[in-house]
Design brief:
The complex is a heterodimer of chains A (135) and B (287). With 135 residues, chain A is an all-alpha fold. Helices cover 58% and strands 0% of the residues of chain A. In chain B, the strands form two sheets. In chain B, strands 6-3-7-2-8-1-10-9 form an eight-stranded mixed β-sheet, sandwiched between helices. Chain B has helices at residues 14-21, 31-35, 38-46, 98-110, 125-135, 164-179, 209-221, 223-227, 231-238, 246-253; strands spanning 3-10, 51-56, 71-74, 78-79, 94-95, 116-118, 149-154, 186-192, 265-275, 278-286. Chain B has one domain (3-286): Protocatechuate 4,5-dioxygenase, Chain B, CATH 3.40.830. The longest helix of chain B is centred in the middle third of the chain and has 16 residues, at 164-179. The interface between A and B is large, with 59 and 50 residues.
Chain lengths: 135, 287
C-alpha cells in the first residue's frame, strides 16, 4: 500500500506534485492563488512583469508564466489546480489550457476527447513512449 | 437516531458547472451528461436527505501552498462559493450543519482519525458542482440548496495523499458517528471526483473506461478490494487526477452493511465520456 514518489517515475508525461515540488513551487503557486481576487487579476493583466516581481519566484518561473509554458511551470513546482487560475485570468477554458500541454492543436485535442479520450494502451509506461520515439 | 440512508458518487468537473451557469445544458455536447442525472434528481426528490456529508477535494482554493490538511471537516455555519479565477459560481451559499459536524468530529477523532476542523472556507467546484448536478440549479425566487451540507475535504492534490484503505475506514467511522447522533436525521454521504482524467503534460486527456467500470463494480460489491488499489495504479491507469477516486471510498465506507451480507442496491449508474477532459461516473447506492 505504501507508495513513494519514485514508484511513479515510470509513468510517462506525469509530474507528481509532492512536498518537494510544493516547496520548489511555493512562490509560483502563491502567485497563482492571488489571481482569485479580481483586483489582482487586473493588476497582473496590466503589467505582468511588475506583478510577478512581487512574488518570491525564480526568474525561470516568472518566464515560464509569461510564456504560458504550463509544462515548464509543472516542472518548476507548479500544480495544475494552481496554474488553472492563470488560464481563468486569460479567459481560456480548462480544456484549452490542458490541451495546449499536449502539443496538439485545440481542434485535435477536442476531437480526441470526443472520440473517447487518449487511450490507455501504449500510455502506461515510459518505455512504451521511448520505443515509439525510437529512443 | 440519525442514520446513513444512501451514498451517492459523482464526478465534479468545473466545466459542468460552467455549462449550467451559462445556460448551455441543452447543447448537444452537454445534454447527455445532464440526462444521466435525471433519474437521480427524481430519486432525490422522493428521498430527500436532511443533511449531506459531501466528500470533496479543494482545488487550491481554500487550502493553498501554506497549509494542506489531509482530512478537514467543515464545522462552520455556512460556506460561500469561491472565486476560482472566473468569478464565483452564481449558486447559493452552502449552509452547514455545525451540530452534526461537531459530533462527527468528536466521534471520529476519538476513533483516531485526526481531522482538521474548519470554520471558514470558500467552497469550489468540487463541492458545488455535485450539488448542482444532483439537486438541480436553484431558481432565483427560491435561491437555496435543499438541505444543509457538511463539507469533508480530502487532500488528493499534494502527495502524500491518504490511502484508499484509510478513506474507507474513515467512512466507517463517520457512519458510526452519525448513528450515535441523538437527533433523528436522514443523512446521505456523497463521494465526488474522478473518474479517469489527466490534466497535465503530454499524457493529458487520458481516459480509461475499463478501469472506471471495474472501479464502480468493485466499489459496489467488494469495497475492500477497491480500497487496496495503490496510488500508483490510479495514476497509471486513470491519470494523475484519477487519484480523486479515493474519495468515493469514504462515502462507500459510510454505508451501513446489509444484514444478509449482500452488496448494496444500485439505484442508478451512469458513465459518459467526455466532460471537458474527464470521464463522468455516477452511482446511487442504498443499503
Amino acid at each position: 500500500m505504501t507508495t513513494h514518489s519514485a514508484d511513479f517515475a515510470d509513468i510517462p508525461g506525469t509530474v507528481l506534485f509532492d512536498a518537494q515540488q510544493s516547496r520548489k513551487g511555493y512562490g509560483l503557486n502563491q502567485f497563482c492563488m492571488s489571481l482569485m481576487k479580481p483586483a489582482n487579476r487586473e493588476r497582473f493583466k496590466a503589467d505582468e512583469a511588475a506583478y510577478l516581481a512581487e512574488w518570491p519566484m525564480s526568474d525561470e518561473q516568472r518566464q515560464a508564466v509569461r510564456d504560458r509554458d504550463m509544462n515548464r511551470c509543472l516542472a518548476l513546482g507548479g500544480n495544475v489546480y494552481f496554474l488553472v487560475k492563470i488560464a481563468a485570468t486569460d479567459g481560456i477554458s480548462v480544456q484549452q489550457m490542458v490541451g495546449r500541454m499536449t502539443g496538439m492543436s485545440e481542434a485535435d485535442y477536442r476531437d480526441m476527447m470526443l472520440r473517447g479520450g487518449r487511450p490507455i494502451e501504449g500510455n502506461r509506461y515510459q518505455h512504451e513512449w521511448s520505443q515509439r520515439s525510437g529512443a | 437516531m440519525a442514520h446513513v440512508s444512501a451514498s451517492i458518487y459523482t464526478s465534479h468537473v468545473p466545466a459542468i458547472g460552467a455549462a449550467l451557469d451559462h445556460g448551455r445544458a441543452a447543447e448537444p455536447y452537454w445534454a447527455p451528461v445532464f440526462a444521466g442525472y435525471e433519474a437521480s434528481r427524481a430519486w432525490l426528490r422522493e428521498n430527500p436527505p436532511d443533511v449531506v456529508v459531501l466528500v470533496f477535494n479543494d482545488h487550491a482554493t481554500a487550502f493553498g501552498p501554506d497549509l494542506v490538511p489531509t482530512f478537514a471537516i467543515g464545522t462552520g455555519a455556512s460556506y460561500a462559493p469561491a472565486d476560482e479565477g472566473w468569478g464565483a459560481r452564481p449558486v447559493p451559499v452552502v449552509q452547514g450543519h455545525p451540530e452534526l459536524a461537531a459530533h462527527i468530529a468528536q466521534s471520529v477523532i476519538q476513533d483516531d482519525f485526526d481531522l482538521t476542523l474548519v470554520n471558514r472556507m470558500d467552497v469550489d467546484h468540487g463541492l458545488t458542482v455535485p450539488l448542482s448536478l444532483l439537486f438541480g440549479q436553484p431558481s432565483a425566487d427560491d435561491f437555496h440548496w435543499p438541505c444543509p451540507v457538511i463539507p469533508l475535504a480530502v487532500n488528493v492534490v499534494q502527495y502524500p495523499v491518504p490511502s484508499g484503505r484509510r478513506c474507507l475506514a474513515l467512512g466507517r467511522a463517520i457512519r458510526k458517528a452519525v448513528e450515535s447522533y441523538g437527533e433523528d436525521l436522514n443523512v446521505q454521504v456523497w463521494g465526488t471526483g474522478g473518474m479517469s482524467h489527466q490534466l497535465q503534460g503530454p499524457r493529458a486527456g487520458l481516459i480509461n473506461p475499463v478501469f472506471d467500470h471495474a472501479f464502480m463494480d468493485m466499489l459496489t460489491t467488494v469495497p475492500e478490494a477497491a480500497a487496496a488499489i495503490p496510488h500508483v495504479d490510479y495514476v497509471r491507469e486513470a491519470g494523475s487526477e484519477g487519484i480523486e477516486l479515493v474519495m468515493w471510498l469514504v462515502a462507500r465506507g459510510a454505508m451501513p452493511e446489509r444484514a444478509d451480507g449482500r452488496a448494496p442496491t444500485c439505484v442508478h449508474r451512469f458513465y459518459h465520456v467526455p466532460a471537458s477532459n474527464t470521464a463522468v461516473g455516477h452511482l446511487v447506492l442504498t443499503p
